[in-house]
Design brief:
Two copies of one chain form a homodimer. Chain A has 144 residues and is an alpha+beta fold. Chain A is 34% helix and 19% strand. Chain A has helices at 7-10, 53-74, 119-126, 129-143, and strands spanning 15-19, 23-27, 37-41, 78-83, 92-98. The first copy, chain A, has a five-stranded antiparallel β-sheet with strand order 1-2-3-5-4, covered by helices on one side. The model of chain A has no long low-confidence stretch (mean pLDDT 95). The interface between A and B is medium-sized, with 29 and 29 residues.
Chain lengths: 144, 144
């Protein structure tokens, strides 16, 4: 895959909550997972070890700022972090708040679906997205 | 889950390649995935943001030392990194060398199985495990 055909070069990949010269933080529209965020390198870089150490550290500082904001705003049961990139080999981190009653728990979100999440619980989580956006912006502004 | 019932408190979780007071690096016996490594916090800590920043950075330095060693010894198509912990909420990173012909590619290893990996290719990868062990030990000794 070249940068020309890469979805994360062609577009933002979600609702941009923060952006600087190295990275952007986007809220993604994953059905059943309100508050699912990705931290995406702006450059078409394949692996974490292809980044300079300082950039690697800044990218991860953003990942942990998001994790902290998700814990504060959503109080999830667990946070899942992953950098996979098998389909889109452009460095991006999945930062996923998990709940014991979500669609796949305790499986990873890429695993077998376990249940239909309750609409009331999902609505309750969606109602906290404004607080999540604010918490992410505050933490990244403080770090930047 | 209490530390008393935690699999990663009760045992090493694999063949220990490196250990210090904060973490251990283990080679795990995952059928079809020679070179699959986990970096495991020794303490029963739940999330990355529960660790002090310096410990978080040291744990990740070990993850990237393993990633570099896997790239050097195995030349995988992609590296997958993940900290999930839904089943075992004791901080551990999966560091997984992926190949285009492995059992799940391009799915995550937790996703739908795609094929039966060829025994010759698996044997070839297993033959490089001695080089991987040496590369991990060398990189972590240099970092430690």
């Amino acid at each position: 895959m070249t940068a020309q055909s890469c979805a994360l070069c062609a577009g933002d990949g979600g609702e941009v909550l923060y952006r600087d010269e190295l990275l952007r933080v986007v809220l993604v529209d994953e059905p059943g997972y309100p508050g699912f965020v990705r931290v995406i390198a702006n450059a078409h870089v394949r692996e974490m070890t292809d980044l300079a150490a300082a950039d690697r550290q800044r990218l991860l500082a953003a990942v942990f700022a998001v994790e902290s904001a998700q814990r504060e705003a959503l109080a999830p049961h667990k946070i899942n972090l992953a950098s996979l990139g098998n389909v889109t080999p452009h460095l991006h981190w999945h930062v996923i708040p998990r709940f014991a009653d979500d669609a796949h728990f305790p499986e990873p979100v890429w695993g077998a679906r376990q249940r239909e999440p309750g609409p009331a619980r999902l609505a309750e989580r969606r109602a906290r997205l404004a607080a999540l956006r604010a918490a992410i912006a505050a933490r990244l502004a403080a770090a930047g």
